[in-house]
């Protein structure tokens, strides 16, 4: 339970550390439980969306739900996405990319990246029927985190001096990969309940993470914490895109 508490402390603003004494070494395995934490972040976002949609337009409800998730996570992954866009957009070498990503100031690429992310997310989710949007948000959060967590298994850490937060992620054992797989893929059953074709949307984040791994291996020679956050959001966005495409192509109006 302390390992899950470490993941909650790391990936959310929940003050778990006030009630649980967490050994520092436990933070090296937080990515194992990242997709499980997605049940909480995605679940809260989905609940807020459903509640808000009862009393306000869908567009406003989506923005309200995103605000709630941002408060819960402290914009952890959004910060990573901004740094990722700045680094890969403005850097022409590994050293320059890492230097830009380490800078606490946000640049043009980071601002544009966040704007496009939010515009895309809000436009996609607000175009869906409420129940599909609710289940899609919940499922895509967990699946995206499961995909992004595999960076630590496939790529080395890119900074020779180590992570900014002094936490070094351990490669997963077979049993830990199984935990990631189950917690990441189980929410897909909710989409399958609506229509089995929606499960195919999970192909999109797999393609996305594979493409980003190739990019990071070529440009950076590895990953950073910012890369993990960016990959998580981009995988989530790709799955929501897949859900929207499938809905427009084959879903029934009764959903």
What's a concise summary of this model?
The chain is an all-alpha fold. It is 69% helix and 0% strand. Helix 4 (76-90) crosses helix 6, helix 6 (108-126) packs parallel to helix 12 (225-250) and helix 7 runs antiparallel to helix 10 (188-194).
Give the radius of gyration.
18 Å
Main β-sheet, in a few words? none
> In one word, what is the shape?
globular
Poorly predicted ranges: none
Structural class: mainly alpha
- Helicity level: 55-70%
Helix and strand pattern: HHHHHHHHHHHH
Portion in beta strands = under 5%
Separation, N- and C-terminal Cα atoms: 38 Å
Q: Quote the average pLDDT.
A: 92
Report the oligomer. Answer: single chain
Strand tally is 0
Given the structure, what is the number of helices? 12
Protein described:
The structure is a single chain. The protein starts with a helix and ends in a 5-residue tail after the last helix. It is globular. The mean pLDDT is 92. 69% of the residues lie in helices and 0% in strands. It has twelve helices and no strands.
């Amino acid at each position: 339970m302390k390992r899950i508490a470490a993941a909650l402390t790391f990936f959310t603003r929940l003050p778990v550390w006030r009630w649980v004494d967490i050994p520092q070494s436990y933070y090296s395995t937080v990515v194992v439980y990242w997709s499980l934490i997605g049940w909480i972040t995605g679940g809260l976002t989905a609940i807020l969306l459903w509640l808000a949609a009862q009393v306000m337009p869908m567009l406003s409800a989506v923005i309200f739900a995103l605000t709630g998730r941002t408060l819960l996570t402290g914009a952890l992954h959004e910060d990573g996405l901004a740094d990722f866009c700045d680094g890969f957009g403005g850097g022409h070498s590994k050293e320059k990319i890492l230097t830009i990503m380490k800078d606490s100031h946000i640049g043009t690429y980071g601002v544009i990246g966040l704007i496009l992310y939010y515009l895309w997310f809000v436009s996609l989710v607000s175009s869906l029927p409420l129940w599909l949007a609710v289940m899609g948000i919940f499922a895509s959060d967990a699946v995206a985190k499961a995909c992004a967590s595999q960076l630590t298994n496939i790529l080395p850490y890119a900074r020779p001096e180590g992570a900014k937060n002094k936490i070094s992620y351990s490669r997963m054992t077979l049993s830990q990969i199984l935990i990631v797989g189950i917690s990441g893929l189980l929410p897909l059953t909710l989409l399958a309940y609506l229509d089995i074709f929606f499960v195919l949307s999970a192909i999109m984040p797999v393609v996305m993470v594979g493409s980003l791994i190739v990019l990071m291996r070529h440009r950076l020679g590895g990953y950073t914490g910012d890369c993990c956050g960016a990959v998580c959001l981009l995988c989530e966005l790709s799955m929501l895109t897949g859900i929207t495409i499938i809905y427009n192509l084959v879903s029934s109006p009764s959903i």
